[in-house]
Amino acid sequence: MIFRVDPHAPEPLFEQLGTQVRAAVTAGALVTGDRLPAARALAESLDINVHTVLHAYQSLRDDGLIELRRGRGAVVSAPPAPALDELRAAIDVVVDRARTLGVPPTTTLTLLKEALR
C-alpha cells in the first residue's frame, strides 16, 4: 500500500495516515494479519517525523484497527468490514446536498463528526 500525505492540508499528518489505513481496511485492501510498514521506514519515505507515524499507529490501535507488536510492528487486527453500500449511498446524498448548498468540505466533515459523537 502506498501512503501519501499533504503537508499543506488542514488535516494533521497523523490523521491523514490514519484515514488512509481506515479506508483501506473498509475497502478490503488491508485485512486481518496484514502488516503496516515499520514506522521509521514509513516516516523516511514520506519525509515526516517518526513520531507522526507512531501517533497515527497509536490512534489506529486505540480504535482497535491494528495491534502494535514488539518486533513485528503494526498488524491489522480489524475484522472484515461489513457491507457498506447503503451507508456509502447515504453519504453520497449528503455530499451532493452539501455541494448544492455550497457548504465547504471541512464544514461538512465537521458536521458529520459532530453527528457521530
TrEMBL record:
InterPro entries in the cross-refs: Tscrpt_reg_HTH_GntR (IPR000524), WH-like_DNA-bd_sf (IPR036388), WH_DNA-bd_sf (IPR036390)
Source organism superkingdom: Bacteria
Keywords annotated in UniProt: DNA-binding, Transcription, Transcription regulation
HTH gntR-type domain sequence ranges: 11-79
Protein species of origin: Flavimobilis marinus
Official protein name in the record: Transcriptional regulator, GntR family
Entry-linked Pfam families: GntR (PF00392)
Stretches assigned to coiled coil: none
Matches recorded under PANTHER family: GNTR-FAMILY TRANSCRIPTIONAL REGULATOR, HTH-TYPE TRANSCRIPTIONAL REPRESSOR YTRA
Top-level taxonomy: Bacteria, Bacillati, Actinomycetota, Actinomycetes, Micrococcales
A molecular function (GO) term: DNA binding
